[in-house]
Design brief:
Blueprint (H helix, E strand, L loop, with lengths): L12 H12 L4 H21 L4 E2 L4 E2 L5 H20 L14 H34 L3
Antiparallel strand pairs: 1-2
Helix pairs in contact: 2-4
């Protein structure tokens, strides 16, 4: 760029498209599929044990989730490993393989992804409101 020339910043609709595109790339496609599976299982469990955490119209998890709903779910998915540990059962002798740490961490990542999506949409709504309020007639 030549000295003294200013960069032109396009603040039109293309900027919003770029931002949305970057948000979509935040998580790769395989991870999103895994998250959907984990969230489906979590949603089904929460619907039975903590129905107030599920939006009845969208059948989706309401955020923020209360800690007293999240911790019992984590206990639920960890219970086979805990039972085998208490009974000194070796993993090779277990009737059902307990979840490994990375699988359990995957549930956490899926939940974080829901929070990011919710917060991003809330931020988007607020930013749109600011944009509409500052538009000149």
């Amino acid at each position: 760029m030549a000295r003294g020339r200013k960069r032109v910043i396009d603040d039109g609709a293309d900027g919003a498209f770029v931002a949305q595109s970057l948000l979509a790339k935040r998580t790769n496609t395989n991870a999103k599929r895994t998250y959907q599976s984990e969230i489906k299982g979590m949603t089904e469990w929460l619907a039975v044990h903590h129905p107030d955490t599920i939006d009845s119209s969208t059948k989706s998890i309401r955020v923020p989730l209360p800690k007293d709903a999240v911790l019992p779910f984590v206990g639920h998915i960890c219970s086979p490993a805990h039972t085998y540990d208490l009974n000194s059962v070796h993993a090779s002798d277990a009737t059902h393989a307990p979840l490994n740490v990375s699988s359990i961490w995957g549930y956490r990542s899926a939940l974080v992804d829901i929070y990011h999506a919710t917060l991003d949409s809330q931020l988007d709504t607020e930013l749109r409101g600011v944009r509409m309020a500052t538009r000149r007639p």
